[in-house]
Design brief:
With about 230 residues, the protein is α+β, with helices and mostly antiparallel strands. The protein contains five helices and four strands; from the N terminus they run H-E-H-H-E-E-H-H-E. It has a two-stranded antiparallel sheet. It has a two-stranded antiparallel sheet with strand order 2-3. Helix 2 (about 25-35) packs across helix 4 and helix 4 packs antiparallel against helix 5 (about 175-210).
């Protein structure tokens, strides 16, 4: 995070600041967005396009080509009979016709085509990998959302049990052991609740990373609904 390990910070109230929502977009929509937004797939596409250009370059080496060149110079002579100056210009137009060179150009074209096919395979492999990552992250976020729901229910039940145990103790029909056990269960439920929300946040960030929609501040840019 770019801060010192012993930096002091305040932890906000999780209940009032944290919220858990569900992903409004379908997994197919997110996968299509990942195929569009992921920079590694864009890089693979660019590499394949560059290799396609290499095929055209290798093919063009076997075609006749026109050449055009020009030269110019300026001379000045001082002394002798008199001062003389002169300018010379020349333009050369030529035609280059390839001749037999032991099939080296054909081999160059084949090599360029093979490299292009390998680039396409890498692009397809990257695309499939992105699809798997986005699908797995989407499923993980759904699981994390269900875990938060279960943690909320457990916390509510633990709070009710703690209230009942304290009420029974105040009325003289319960023991302090019952109160302590209920309070311990409530503390565990609170910890599980916070852990579930934390895991949900991690799952959301992982999905945004795999889809390629983290904004410049590192926040997930994924459509959510309460």
């Amino acid at each position: 995070m770019g801060v010192q390990a012993n930096s002091r910070f305040e932890v906000p109230d999780v209940q009032s600041t944290d919220s858990v929502a569900v992903v409004a977009a379908s997994v197919d929509t997110l996968i299509n967005r990942a195929i569009t937004e992921r920079p590694d797939l864009a890089a693979a596409r660019a590499d394949a396009a560059a290799l396609a250009a290499e095929i055209r370059i290798a093919r063009s080496a076997g075609y006749p080509a026109l050449t055009l060149s020009s030269t110019g110079n300026y001379t000045r002579q001082i002394g002798g009979v008199g001062n003389t100056t002169g300018r010379n210009f020349s333009v050369v137009l030529g035609l280059q016709i390839p001749v037999f060179n032991g099939f080296s150009r054909e081999y160059d074209v084949r090599t360029a085509r093979d490299l292009y096919e390998a680039g396409l395979a890498r692009m397809q492999s990257t695309k499939l990998q992105i699809t798997v990552q986005a699908f797995a992250s989407y499923a993980a976020l759904q699981t994390a959302t269900d875990r938060v729901t279960a943690a909320v229910e457990l916390l509510t039940a633990a709070q009710q049990s703690s209230d009942v145990a304290q009420g029974r103790y105040r009325e003289g029909v319960g023991t302090i052991i019952d109160v302590l056990l209920a309070r311990s269960a409530l503390a565990s439920a609170r910890a599980d609740h916070i852990q579930a929300r934390w895991e949900w946040r991690i799952a959301l960030a992982q999905l945004a990373h795999d889809v390629g929609v983290l904004d410049t501040a590192g926040r997930p840019n994924i459509p959510l609904s309460p």
